[in-house]
Amino acid sequence: MNIALIAHDKMKQDMVNFTTAYQYVLSEHHLYATGTTGSKIRKATGMDVHLFQSGPLGGDQQIGAMIANNEMDMVIFFRDPLTAQPHEPDISALMRLCDVYHIPLATNIAASEIFIRGLENGDFQWRDIVKQKKEKEKA
């Protein structure tokens, strides 16, 4: 599965801790992240993470493009609900795309842990079915 990892500044250490704790699951998938978040994950875990621009510089939109092209299967986004974000419209657009394209979106650690448990159990196999259907429609 293709999994996007995003974290606001005050949440980056939580994301590093999360990815370190669940490295045994995440390392089985293709990981994508916004710039600084991905760099911190790489440094802490040694996992291969494709880096996009930082969120405010277009990273959220790059991930959104993958969602719109049916190339992203899950988004884990540790949002900081207590700090105003200057790029809030980009964040809202990303979340809207997840809803439009039925992409699972976790915005906190608790929901993210549920996703990880689902990955361990193979509960997201329906994404493969959706991808195959979309590919057939394109042909």
UniProtKB/TrEMBL annotation:
<feature type="binding site">
    <location>
        <position position="12"/>
    </location>
    <ligand>
        <name>substrate</name>
    </ligand>
</feature>
<feature type="binding site">
    <location>
        <begin position="34"/>
        <end position="37"/>
    </location>
    <ligand>
        <name>substrate</name>
    </ligand>
</feature>
<comment type="function">
    <text>Catalyzes the formation of methylglyoxal from dihydroxyacetone phosphate.</text>
</comment>
<dbReference type="InterPro" id="IPR036914">
    <property type="entry name" value="MGS-like_dom_sf"/>
</dbReference>
<feature type="binding site">
    <location>
        <position position="8"/>
    </location>
    <ligand>
        <name>substrate</name>
    </ligand>
</feature>
<feature type="binding site">
    <location>
        <begin position="54"/>
        <end position="55"/>
    </location>
    <ligand>
        <name>substrate</name>
    </ligand>
</feature>
<dbReference type="GO" id="GO:0005829">
    <property type="term" value="C:cytosol"/>
</dbReference>
<dbReference type="InterPro" id="IPR018148">
    <property type="entry name" value="Methylglyoxal_synth_AS"/>
</dbReference>
<dbReference type="InterPro" id="IPR011607">
    <property type="entry name" value="MGS-like_dom"/>
</dbReference>
<feature type="active site" description="Proton donor/acceptor">
    <location>
        <position position="60"/>
    </location>
</feature>
<dbReference type="InterPro" id="IPR004363">
    <property type="entry name" value="Methylgl_synth"/>
</dbReference>
<feature type="binding site">
    <location>
        <position position="87"/>
    </location>
    <ligand>
        <name>substrate</name>
    </ligand>
</feature>
<feature type="domain" description="MGS-like">
    <location>
        <begin position="1"/>
        <end position="139"/>
    </location>
</feature>
<comment type="similarity">
    <text>Belongs to the methylglyoxal synthase family.</text>
</comment>
<dbReference type="GO" id="GO:0008929">
    <property type="term" value="F:methylglyoxal synthase activity"/>
</dbReference>
<dbReference type="Pfam" id="PF02142">
    <property type="entry name" value="MGS"/>
</dbReference>
<dbReference type="GO" id="GO:0019242">
    <property type="term" value="P:methylglyoxal biosynthetic process"/>
</dbReference>
<keyword id="KW-0456">Lyase</keyword>
<protein>
    <recommendedName>
        <fullName>Methylglyoxal synthase</fullName>
        <ecNumber>4.2.3.3</ecNumber>
    </recommendedName>
</protein>
